[in-house]
Amino acid sequence: MSSDVILVIVVGTALAFDFTNGFHDTANVVATSISTGAARPRVAIGIASLLNFIGAFISISVAATVANDVVDASVITPTIVFAGLIGAIAWNLITWWFGLPSSSSHALIGGVVGSAVAAAGFDAVLTEGLVGKVLVPAVVAPIVAFTVAGIGIGLAYRIVGRQRPGPVTRGFRYGQIVSGGLLALAHGTNDAQKTMGVITLALIANGTLAAGADPPTWVIVSAATAIALGTYFGGWRIIRTTGSRIIKMDAAQGFSAQASGAAVILASTHFGFPLSTTHVINGGVMGAGAAKRISAVRWGVAGNIVFAWLLTLPAAAAIGGAVYGLTRIFGTGALGPVLVTLIALALSAAAFARRSQQAAPVPAGSG
Amino acid sequence: MIATIIETKELLETVLASLLAGVGITAVFSVAIWGGARFADLNRGGRPLAAGAAAALGVLALVATVAAIVVGILVMTSK
Asked: What pTM was computed for the model?
């Protein structure tokens, strides 16, 4: 009975994380289209939400990686998964508060790894999977996106360089509706699967599913819905950072950044790499900017983002470990997770209330 | 040790696919835009034959862009 209560809390928390993932990552998906004037904010966000939902149904390779290749499922309990999720949500809210586009994905994996280490020691971590499928792709993917966007925009400028700017800009703005949609689809495909993987891990830990099982349909549908809703209600603050503070883009650069981001995310999803979509799209944005003019990229802002990236895994792991310790103060039953959930809800509500008094939507085409 | 941990083949295929798809789609779509822009200019300049050729190339490139996206999604998401 107690374990079922914890499982229900874990599923609810995982879907809440998925919501915050969509909420947090809205900016990454739509900022480029909005900042170049290719789409109005509400339209871009509506399309992104729908395509996030559809994207979640395309593949389950990443979910399998998160469920089976990062931590040893045989020593994991639903409480460990819960603590990891709270660690990830807390880090997402902290970075959202400061307007930093850090990685929700790395926060999730960091949180689960941290709580697993706190509960069962370093043996609980599957080093091969963590390094080979998470850490190395985490470093490689943004560099590839940077390079692809840079080469792409270089070619684009050579091809259309002598044409009148009006039709060229209009053409790339139309193209951005497609490339932005593709990026949203890719985002849903990779990011929603991380939540599916975590819920599947909890179901395996609870004995509800056999080890190595695929996510059940209800998990896929609920994860898709949560990320789509999160995207729809997403974070306006971070749009400013991604869309205008890193670089002032033209429509061709926006297209190239989005196409490179979508290509990297979809290719990685095929092999089950749980990437940070935030890292990838920011890598693409910087590549598209640097190829035109190195000084066009505001490297100070980019440096802050890189700092947030580096901090995400250890910070989420530390919070996840601390949350696990906190829940264990109240024993192994459901009391700890219930109390921690209530505290987390109260703190989140306070943060949203405070922020909603300060935040204002970014007008179309700003930056 | 590191070589066995890193999934080199999958990683290289990811990099290659990303390069081909990302650069390819941007380049081919740029050709579509070039075709559209040239069509308008040449047509205005009273050169309908050249304008038709530019338009045909533009349409071909647009079709190639859409086809690349569809094939890309199908290939990337199939196991």
From this structure: 0.86
Angstroms from B33 CA to nearest CA on chain A: 6
With CB atoms and an 8 Å threshold, state whether B37 touches A160: yes
Q: How far apart are CA A219 and CA B77, in angstroms?
A: 19
Q: What is the pLDDT of residues A191-204, one digit of tens each?
A: 899 999 999 999 99
Q: Give the pLDDT confidence of A19-36 residue by residue, as tens digits.
A: 988 887 777 788 888 878
Q: Which one-letter amino acid corresponds to residue A116?
A: A
Residue A285 and residue A257 in contact, taking contact as beta carbons nearer than 8 Å: yes
| Greatest extent of chain A over all pairs of C-alpha atoms, in Å | 71
Inter-residue contact A317 to A135 (CB < 8 Å): no
Whether the Cβ atoms of residue A140 and residue A109 lie closer than 8 Å to each other: no
Tell me the two tokens of residue A225: 């819905």
Using a CB-CB distance cutoff of 8 angstroms, which residues of chain B are in contact with residue A263? 17-18, 21-22, 25, 72
- The answer to whether A82 and A39 have CB atoms below 8 angstroms apart is no
Per the DSSP assignment, residues forming a β-bridge with A71 are: A125
Which amino acid type is present at position A41? P
Query: Å from B75 to nearest chain A CA?
Result: 8
A152 or A211, which is more confident? Answer: A152
More confident residue, A205 or A240: A205
Contact state of B21 with A263 under an 8 Å Cβ cutoff: yes
Q: What one-letter code names the amino acid at A134?
A: V
B70 exposure class (CB count in 10 Å sphere: 0-12, 13-18, 19+): exposed
Query: Locate tokens 């497609």: which residue?
Result: A178
Q: Measured on CA atoms in the order A348, A349, A352, A358, is the torsion positive or negative?
A: negative
| SS3 assignment for chain B | CHHHHCCHHHHHHHHHHHHHHHHHHHHHHHHHHHHHHHHHHHHHCCCHHHHHHHHHHHHHHHHHHHHHHHHHHHHHHCC
